[in-house]
Amino acid sequence: MRAGILKLRQEESYKEFINSHPDATIHHTLEWRDVIQTAFGHRPFYIVAYEGKDIVGALPLFEVNAAFDRKRLVSVPYCYFVKVLYKDDKSLLAMLDFAKKIADSRDCMYLEIRHGYDLPEIPDFKRHEHFIRSTVDLSVPIDEVWKKFRKSAKEATKKARRSGLEIIRAKNLQHYRIHYRLALETRKKLGLPAFPYELFKSIYYILHTSGKAKLYMAFFKDQFITAELVLYHNKTATAAIVGSKENREIYRLRPQNLIIWTEIQEAHEMGHKIFDFGVTPPDNEGLLFFKSNWGSQNKTMSYYYFMRKNLEIPIVDTNEPKIQLGCSILRKMPLMVNRVIGPLLLKQFD
């Protein structure tokens, strides 16, 4: 059993492995590699395990460069659940040992594996649980999916239908530019750094045009008011970036509910078995409750860290005074300032 960096001539074999592996998600794909590299400039290190000439394992990594030489290896930045795909313990250890060597050779502060689930005993790695993943089971008939929703989610969805909202599927780059602007408003309200426009542009050209992404947009009174991205791979549909006009009157229409129900219905029609809401910090009880309205199942995610420089595990606690202060500043910051500074800040914390 051996491990090494994925080579250009092996990419077709890698795609076959990823497309056939039941635990692979969009974030294992080479398309997602290209999105991250184009939008953020992070250098990829895609590690694979071999048995003979066959690929039997995959560990996608990116080198993230931050200020003050806080360089790190992450699997995968801007994603919160990326399983290490491995055949057996030997293939797992081979890839992790190779990853440690890269971290050493690149003088990274640490190596972060966002596997999500428990791994066998791994030398030199520390385990930490923090985020909670919420998923909806789509393997049952769609009327059974609907029955599992709480009454509040059903009523809000029906209200959105009666309001005259129209759900539109994005067709061009201009729609993705609108999504970017809506996401700017939402990130400002939450006190979060803005994503770069290049991310939306890359998703359109690399994922949307190949059928691996859809953008759902709520249209009301001659304007787009809410939009959410969904990414597809194998049997999983993953909800991603959401953006909305920050207006109480618009919120009362419940456009998000109608968008989510539309996404779930179409994912079910496409044959997907899981609708993934993504992860939530455990202290964000409001968001966890919203996701639970859709009959979601929760799982606390396990992350693994190889700390090279005797540092503490780098968990961002949103209740810390300095984090609260940073969020407060971003809420007050003009949108045009956040769109410039936000992408730089993202590299420091993700």
How would you describe this structure to a colleague?
- With 350 residues, the protein is an alpha+beta fold.
- It has two domains: 2-130 and 300-315, Gcn5-related N-acetyltransferase (GNAT) (Aminopeptidase), CATH 3.40.630; 139-272, 3-Layer(aba) Sandwich (Aminopeptidase), CATH 3.40.630.
- 40% of the residues lie in helices and 28% in strands.
- The protein has twelve helices and 13 strands.
- Strands 1, 2, 3, 4, 5, 6, 7, 8, 9, 10, 11, 12 and 13 form a 13-stranded mixed β-sheet that branches.
- Helix 5 (151-162) crosses helix 9 (255-269), helix 6 (173-190) packs across helix 7 (197-207) and helix 6 (173-190) packs across helix 11 (321-332).
- It is globular, with a radius of gyration of 20 Å.
- The mean pLDDT is 91.
Quick overview of this protein structure:
This protein is α+β, with helices and mostly antiparallel strands.
